[in-house]
TrEMBL record:
Highest taxon listed in the record's lineage: Bacteria
Family stated for the protein in its record: Belongs to the ComF/GntX family.
Alphabetical list of Gene3D superfamilies matching this protein: 3.40.50.2020
GO molecular function terms attached to this record: glycosyltransferase activity
Protein name from the UniProt record: Competence protein F homolog, phosphoribosyltransferase domain protein YhgH required for utilization of DNA as sole source of carbon and energy
Keywords for the protein's UniProt record, in alphabetical order: Glycosyltransferase, Transferase
Length: 238
C-alpha cells in the first residue's frame, strides 16, 4: 500500500469515528427496551429477549429450540439470517429506527446485522430492499440502505442499489400471508443500467414477517442473472 492510500484510509477511519461521536452527542444512546440513558440496549432488556444464536437451521436460520421456517422461504432465496425475534427491545429499536427518525440506531443495529451475516462468505454486494420514491421522500431515508452502509463499512462489502420499487404498495402491517404476496407482486424491478450477472448478493431489510417482500426482490435479482441470493434482516416474526 502506498503512503497516500494509507493516509487516505486512516483519514477515512478518523472521519467515521468523528461522525459517530457527533451522532452520540446529538442523539445520546437510550435503551430501546426501558429508555435508560447511556446504551442502545441494557443488559436486563437484552437478557429478556435474547438474540438468535447457533445451533440453528442452516437455511432458514431459526434456532433449533424453535420451529423450523424453511417452508416459508422462496426457492430463489438460498438462506435467511436474522439477528433476533421481532419482540421486546429489538421490536422497539426497529420501530424507532424505521418510523421515528432515530437514524443514530443504524450503527448498533447494523452491527447486530453484521453478526447475523458473519458465517455467510463470498458475498459481492449488499442490496437494500428499496422504498417507493414518495415514501423515501416522506421518511427522508431508507432504513435498509443505512443498515447496508454500516455493515458494508465494517466488512468491506459494497452497497448495491440495484433494485427499484416500481409500484407503490400499501403497508404490509396487518396483512395476512396471501395479501402480503399479492401486495408486492410486480412491485419491484431492476434499477436502470444495473447489472448483477454472476453476483452473489445479500438482500437486507429490517423485518421478515412472511418473507413475501424478500421473495419478490430475490425473484427479480435471480431473473437478472444473480448467481445466488441470500437475505438478512434485523428481526424475524416467529
Amino acid at each position: 500500500m502506498t503512503r497516500g492510500r494509507a493516509l487516505g484510509t486512516a483519514s477515512g477511519r478518523w472521519a467515521r469515528a468523528l461522525g459517530e461521536r457527533l451522532v452520540e452527542v446529538v442523539y445520546p444512546a437510550t435503551c430501546a427496551g426501558c429508555g435508560r440513558r447511556g446504551c442502545w440496549v441494557c443488559d436486563p432488556c437484552r437478557a429478556a429477549v435474547p438474540l438468535f444464536a447457533p445451533p440453528w437451521c442452516t437455511r432458514c436460520g431459526i434456532p433449533d429450540d424453535r420451529a423450523c421456517r424453511c417452508a416459508m422461504l422462496a426457492a430463489d432465496l438460498a438462506l435467511l439470517r436474522s439477528a433476533g425475534p421481532f419482540d421486546g427491545w429489538l421490536r422497539r429499536a426497529v420501530i424507532a429506527f424505521k418510523y421515528e427518525d432515530e437514524t443514530a440506531r443504524a450503527t448498533p443495529l447494523g452491527d447486530l446485522l453484521r453478526g447475523a451475516l458473519e458465517e455467510v462468505d463470498g458475498l459481492d454486494g449488499l442490496v437494500p430492499v428499496p422504498l417507493h420514491a414518495r415514501r423515501r421522500r416522506e421518511r427522508g431515508y431508507n432504513q435498509a440502505a443505512l443498515l447496508c452502509d454500516r455493515v458494508g463499512a465494517t466488512i468491506g462489502i459494497p452497497t448495491l442499489d440495484v433494485l427499484a420499487r416500481e409500484r407503490e404498495t400499501r403497508a404490509q402491517v396487518g396483512l395476512g400471508a396471501e395479501a402480503r404476496r399479492a401486495n408486492v407482486a410486480g412491485a419491484f424491478g431492476m434499477a436502470p443500467g444495473r447489472n448483477v450477472t454472476g453476483l452473489r448478493l445479500a438482500l437486507v431489510d429490517d423485518v421478515c414477517t412472511t418473507g413475501s417482500t424478500l421473495a419478490a426482490c430475490a425473484a427479480v435479482l435471480v431473473a437478472a442473472g444473480a448467481v445466488e441470493v441470500v437475505a438478512a434482516t434485523l428481526a424475524r416474526e416467529v
